[in-house]
Structures are given as C-alpha cells and as structure tokens.
Amino acid sequence: MAPRPHDQRVTDTLRRLSDDVDAWVATATPDGRPYLVPLSFLWDGDTLLFSTAARTPTARNLVASREARIGVGPTRDVVLIHGAVTVLEPDDLTAAEGDAFAEKTGFDPRTLRDYLYFRVRPTRVQAWREVDELAGRDITL
To answer: Domain Pyridoxamine 5'-phosphate oxidase N-terminal spans what residues (predicted)?
Structure first.
C-alpha cells in the first residue's frame, strides 16, 4: 500500500481526534521523571481538552511544565501531538464546553471535587501508519 498523501493524513487525523475518546498523555516531573496515563479528551477543532484530579501526578506535571505529549490511536495508525498546556478551573469553561466534554467522555468533572481541566494546543502533530509513512509524518492541521 502506498503512503497516504499529506491531505489524507490530515483528514484521517481530524477524524481520529473527533471520533476517539481516549488518549495516552505523557508528562514529566520537574526533574525529568516520565509519567504516562490514559485520559479522555474532547477535540474542539483547534485544541484538546482533558481533565483529571488536581492531586494526580499528571495534573501536577502539567501545571509545572505547561506541556504534554499525547498519543491517539493504535500503534499502526498513530497520531502524536506535542502541545502547550493551559490550566483551567471548571469555572473557566463555558457551559457548552463543559457539556460537550461530559457528553463525549461520559463523565462530568464539574460535578467532582478538585478537578482541573487542561487545554492542549498542538505545536507539533505527527501521523503515520507504517514505516513507509515515516517520511512526511509531520502534518499541519
């Protein structure tokens, strides 16, 4: 099978971001220790929105570093995103954003105590399926 052209990779990536619910979120402590967890997300067309309890290692790492690496999809159809993180309190979201997040992910952190939201703006996006797609894996959304 021939590698997908850039436009097809963008289309496939946007579909994955719209349709998938869960991603692997990689962070690091200030001294560089890695941490990886699965979290549900909402894609709004420009950013990914995650939520987790403020006391978790992931939340502490995101607050400290303001960056994350995210993996979406299976290993043979992966989207990797490096992004800048904005930390949000539940009250920082519009009602529509909170409702959309709750509907897509199946849980509403606004009803939970001490949860934060994290908006990730992609700074680098890569998408590939097999080794023949490694060249050109950087895409622009």
So the answer is: 23-128
- Regarding the domain with residue range 6-139, which homologous superfamily does it belong to in the CATH classification? Electron Transport, Fmn-binding Protein; Chain A (2.30.110.10)
**84-102 per-position pLDDT tens digit:** 999 999 999 999 999 999 9
For 25-48, give one letter per residue: b (16+ CB within 10 A) or e: bbbbeeeeeeeeeebbbbbeeebb
Whether this prediction's pTM lies above 0.85 is answered by yes
Distance of CA 45 to the CA centre of its chain: 12
What is the residue whose two structure tokens read 């939340």? Answer: 59
